[in-house]
Amino acid sequence: MSRYRFIAAERGHYPVRRLCPVLGVPASGYYAWQTGQQRAVDQQTPAWETASVKTFGVHQRRYGTRRLQVALRQNGYAVGRQRLRTAMRRRGLQALQPKAYTPRTTDSTHGLRCAPNRLLDQPKPTRANQVWVSDITYLLLANGDWAYL
Predict the structure, then answer these.
(1) Would the pLDDT of 42 be above 60?
(2) Could you say which of 30, 52, 96, 109 has the lowest number of CB atoms within 10 Å?
(3) Of 57, 89, 87, 55, which is closest to residue 74 (Cα–Cα)?
(4) Which residue, among 75, 77, 24, 89, has the nearest Cα to 46 in the 3D structure?
């Protein structure tokens, strides 16, 4: 039994101000504990929190706090993003993040021969601009398209 529970059980026989020093706890600590116990009993899950969990599941864990807040407002619940974030964290809900798109141009499982290295048969270059090689670079444009350089 915790000290605070003992005080709560014995407060009908002795004053709280006398029990607290005997048990070595501050009276303010007991009253804070008592208030917390009453809040835990009185507290129920808000309707917006239940609706947010349902909306999160309906959208297959893709909605983060921004889109959940918009969906809840459309359903008539006015809730802030920080409060929504706290509720999601408390319930262990985290939106899935899509992977970034990278273009795939090389198929290494094609079964065809690779291009031969024609430089192996040539003598080593002795000065600049004797041998040139190239490569492809992918550039992401502002509109979301890819440019190949």
Answers:
(1) no
(2) 109
(3) 55
(4) 77
Find where tokens 């798109």 sit: 101
Q: How far apart are CA 51 and CA 72, in angstroms?
A: 7
* DSSP collapsed to 3 states, 63-96: CCHHHHHHHHHHCCCCCCHHHHHHHHHHHCCCCC
CA distance 37 to 26: 17
Under DSSP, the state recorded for 59 is: T
Average pLDDT over residues 11-19: 89
At 48 the three-state DSSP class reads helix
Angle at alpha carbon of residue 80, lines to 75 and 86, rounded to 5°:
110
3-state secondary structure of 53: helix
- The reported pTM is 0.45
Show the beta-strand stretches assigned E in the chain. 138-140, 146-148
